[in-house]
Request: fold
Amino acid sequence: MKELFFKIVITGFFIKSFIAFSQEEQRYKLPSQLDEISGLEIINDSLFLAINDSGNKPLLFILNSDAKIVKTVKINGAENNDWEDLAVDEEHIYIGDFGNNLNKRKELIIYKVKIKEVLFKNEAQSERIVFRYLDQKEFPPQMESRNFDSEAFFYDKDSLTLFTKCNTSPWTGISFLYRIPKEPGTYRLKKTENLYIGPGGYFLDAITGADKYGEYIYLTTYNRILILKKEGSNHKIYRTIYFNEITQKESIVVLNKSCLFFADEKHRIFGGGSLTKYNISND
Reply:
């Protein structure tokens, strides 16, 4: 992720020509322990969950509403190969270890952890949901078929929905959707949908985070939020909100129909390292 970011960052300068639809309400500086934040979730109105991406320890951070760390929990039975996103249901936290920039990994994992253990203990035991993509035949595939990386998923209706991040050359701008059971086991995932994100390449049109609230799905790229709504059997982009600056935005979580948060990794040139609150409404 970081290597690709450096390679393409120069292309971001022309984005200033976009109209910025900023609805930022407040910005909080994240602690240095989360300089490489890659996933964000909410477990109640005042507590956030956060993770770092590849190369970091298998730790889950609990943050208060001011983005201060109140607790760090070690996840037993887990490794941080490339943690990229978080999801929650009523009783469990799901940690997506499915980052796969080079499309070489043959075993992708979602760790399932009890919320109660995270809240009341310093260590929590994990269960494993292991999967492969049914339509991936080579590891890695040819450049034109590299669409088996992911940084985004959410929980909905007793399963998890995962969005892949396009890494193809030439660029196709397409994200694949997959659904996976939330129960521990080993699965081969069949693609359920193709979603066209855009022609702008990795820097503009790669999905880096996802969440769902009500009937809407919220996706983030480095430069905007995409809000999806289902029409028939497929999802359509219902609304787009452009950020007023370019940072390495890696995660998004929706509090309610009028408020969401996103977080960005800290970058030595382009800044970031913040938790940002946005006001938004889809009524």
Observations:
- The CA atoms of residues 62 and 119 lie 8 Å apart.
- The helical segments are 2-8, 115-120, 202-205.
- The chain is about 5% helix and 50% strand.
- The chain has one domain: 2-279.
